[in-house]
């Protein structure tokens, strides 16, 4: 998938625990874990906005585009 989720990096930079973020944003820790792993098909803008608000960051700090041929673990 050409979209790489870097939420785990921002959590480390901000020294925020996943449990705390999930609680503040109003999602389960399991769903947050899936988001961090990039195993979701989409994310609501409302959720993305809440994450950005809590972490004081921009959506681009959490997501980046990598063309398929450059994505880690992809290709054939």
TrEMBL record:
Coiled coil: none
Gene Ontology molecular function: any one: DNA binding
Pfam families xrefs: HTH_26
Entry superkingdom: Bacteria
Residue span(s) of domain HTH cro/C1-type: 19-62
UniProt protein name: Cro/Cl family transcriptional regulator
